[in-house]
């Protein structure tokens, strides 16, 4: 059996620091439960001194989550450490994560201090945290830009003071894989007491190298990785959990294993994306909606003959039923139906399927790459305006600074004209609320994505929507120069597949 690689998830701390991604306590509990089911070893649940909301969330999570170790972040400040210990009071397995900046930038500009003083503060904070908990993790902020000799002195001293884990953050995402790996190896070889602690990687993605740096750290001796779901985090984000875990799983030359239930990866990724309102780029490794979509003819052919020709991971391993597009212009109706069902179109009538098949063949003749999105558009647009039981007749929104966004909609439902007015947090929300008043179905918005091509304010906005009803996912799409109208139409497009 290979050595264990500990997975330290910081979605709820470093990930949650992203503006616009803040979660309330209930949402944090939901994410924490999903991370627990995913099998993470350590769950960093927040920075308790930063706000009463963060403190409360940690208390509530501590009452519920028992398996993973719960970790709270602090600065090298006694008050922070006391508050963290308080917040973790109910936690069954707990850890305090304390530390200080060690690079020249931090020592000189942030602390106006000296290397010796910072070393003493590092030792003091670990000793203080040790009074409250057994497991103390020390972070050397901006270790990526700290000279290795000084970093080694700090690491040796904090381990002697009781640190059980030493975290080597590349805070600014500046390192290259070789440089970061060399740093870890340097610590392994030059810190006398290094065997008494676990070395942790914590890499940011500013140059797009977070996963490469993390893997390099592991190859050079790190045994804990600090990661977030979907790689969310400040600026360009943190290392993505799913990327490192799957790299360790499928590459034999990475000599470690994790205890992550990889089949839960996709589900957890969607949950985090939805709750944190952070869409996942379609080509995102492992969890993007095109991550397993083979669309070129050559790849389809290769996958048909043997999946492994073009697939290093089976989609099912990360919890995706089957996303390989194996449709060509020669594919039959049955194959098309199989793929439409996979995308959630379970209730197509035979004449709708015939219509979709005709459109598919036409498109497949013109276009080599038929993606999942193409299929969705085929079915979405497959219902002509005349066939649809649900049509948007009229939409007016009032919004702007210092006014409550209001929307009035008129729908044609099976020939009957109905109107409703509703308010919302913005014009789109108000429009959706008004539409919901007329459609008596319980739907949850799973994904809402607006894309513009040229970025000009006069550009066409393409809106993709996914809604959930009774466990089924329905997709809607529309495009318009008016994004509010496009959003309402996309919502109705999705709803019309249920109604
Ligand atoms: O990036 C970083 O240095 C951090 C530390 C606070 C651990 O997030
Ligand atoms: Zn960080």
What can you tell me about this protein's structure?
The protein has 499 residues and is α/β, with parallel strands linked by helices. The chain folds into three domains: 273 residues, Alpha-Beta Barrel (TIM Barrel), CATH 3.20.20; 93 residues, no CATH class; 111 residues, 2-Layer Sandwich (Double Stranded RNA Binding Domain). It has an eight-stranded parallel β-barrel with strand order 2-3-4-5-6-7-8-9, surrounded by eight helices. A three-stranded antiparallel beta sheet has the order 11-12-13. Strands 14-15-16 form a three-stranded antiparallel beta sheet. Helix 13 packs across helix 14. It starts with a strand and ends with a helix. The structure holds 3-methyl-2-oxobutanoic acid and zinc ion.
Q: Looking at the structure, what is the overall shape?
A: globular
Please tell me the total number of domains: 3
Provide the list of bound ligands, each named once: 3-methyl-2-oxobutanoic acid, zinc ion
Average pLDDT: 90
CATH architecture name of the largest domain: Alpha-Beta Barrel
- The CATH class name of the largest domain reads Alpha Beta
User: What do we call the CATH topology of the largest domain?
Assistant: TIM Barrel
How would a textbook summarize the main sheet? 8 strands, parallel, barrel
User: How many helices in DSSP terms?
Assistant: 16
Say which CATH homologous superfamily of the largest domain is assigned.
Answer: Aldolase class I
User: What portion of the residues fall into strands of 2 or more residues?
Assistant: 15-25%
Class from helix and strand fractions? alpha/beta
As residue ranges, the low-confidence spans are none
What gap, in angstroms, lies between the N and C termini? 53 Å
Helix content: 25-40%
Q: Report the strand count.
A: 16
- Rg to the nearest angstrom? 26 Å
